[in-house]
UniProtKB/TrEMBL annotation:
InterPro entries: Metal_Hydrolase, Phosphotriesterase. Belongs to the metallo-dependent hydrolases superfamily. Phosphotriesterase family. It comes from the Bacteria. The keyword Hydrolase applies. Keywords: Hydrolase, Metal-binding. Coiled coil: none annotated. This is Phosphotriesterase. It comes from Nocardia albiluteola. The modification N6-carboxylysine is found at residue 128. SUPFAM superfamilies: Metallo-dependent hydrolases (SSF51556). The lineage of its organism: Bacteria, Bacillati, Actinomycetota, Actinomycetes, Mycobacteriales.
Length: 300
């Protein structure tokens, strides 16, 4: 079986993905961000067009179930912008949901994830889950177990929101050790928000992908360490484990508003990586690594 990447327009070969923003949001809503919803399709298209104008070819939307995925809108946005889109299923931390909504799906999470990965007019290509701050709480443990079950049923990669970049090793052990998910199918996000290069090396050495995202207003205090974090992994022989994403979660963070948005990755991050670490590292981060991280031998 040939490994493929599942986009909203169908499965593609990994080498067709191209220059990729490995972690972002076109649509998202949460009670934790009242009035800051990303729910404007025209604004989403403008952001994609800005990204594409700089050579961007693919975006992975990490918005999980119940947080305004707008799956039905993604194919048209992909066609109009020419940017390939990978959607997510999965579940975030409990605080992002109405308790009654959580209770209604709690016993059927794995089935829900599998359904969004394998059926319907628009299929997800990633399972997005989340840890808690410096630990795995009861909700996260339940969701991680469901994600692992869905992974084993479908082959889908699992992307993890690490709260402030913490609990990386605990989450990796839970997925890989307890639930037998191969580390190559695990992407641990927000690791530069906890800029401990020793932990980053451990994650990479285990075979998981190290996700760095930004810049962001909320985590600006550590954004300046991004290049140092990347360089440390490169120096330790783990250039093949690094992913970069914009992680735009509010309207004001978009480049079409008052923020750096998706284009920042290509007009600022990529040139700096090329200049300081070499063009081959930039190609790994933006092209080669995402092609491997989001591809799998799909079972459904």
């Amino acid at each position: 079986m040939t490994a493929m990447i599942r986009t909203v327009l169908g499965d593609i070969e990994p080498e067709s993905l191209g220059v990729c923003n490995a972690h972002d949001h076109l649509f998202i809503r949460s009670p934790q961000l009242p009035g800051e919803e990303l729910d404007d399709a025209d604004a989403a298209l403008a952001e994609l067009n800005s990204f594409a104008a700089l050579g961007g070819q693919a975006v992975v939307q990490w918005t999980p179930w119940g947080m305004g995925q707008r799956l039905e809108d993604l194919p048209e946005l992909s066609r109009r912008s020419g940017v390939q889109l990978v959607a997510a299923t999965g579940m975030h931390q409990a605080k992002h949901y109405d308790p009654a909504e959580l209770a209604s799906v709690r016993d059927d999470l794995a089935e829900l994830f599998v359904r969004q990965l394998t059926s319907g007019p628009v299929r997800a290509g990633l399972i997005k889950v989340a840890g808690a701050f410096h630990h795995i709480d009861e909700h996260a443990r339940h969701v991680l177990a469901a994600a692992a079950t869905a992974h084993h049923a479908t082959g889908a990669p699992i992307g993890v929101h690490l709260e402030a970049g913490t609990a990386a090793l605990a989450v990796l052990d839970e997925l890989a050790g307890t639930h037998n998910v191969a580390p190559r199918h695990i992407i641990l996000g927000h690791l530069h928000r906890f800029p401990d290069s020793a932990i980053h090396r451990q994650v990479a050495a285990a075979g998981a992908f190290v996700g760095f995202e930004g810049p962001s207003r909320a985590h600006h205090a550590v954004d300046w360490r991004l290049l140092d974090n990347i360089a440390a992994l490169v120096d330790s022989g783990h250039a093949d484990r690094i992913l970069l994403g914009g992680d735009t979660v509010t309207p004001s963070a978009r480049s079409t508003a008052d923020g750096p948005g998706m284009p920042f990755l290509l007009h600022t991050c990529r040139p700096r990586i090329e200049r300081e670490l070499g063009p081959e590292i930039a190609t790994a981060v933006f092209v080669t690594n995402p092609a491997r991280a989001f591809s799998t031998d799909w079972k459904g």
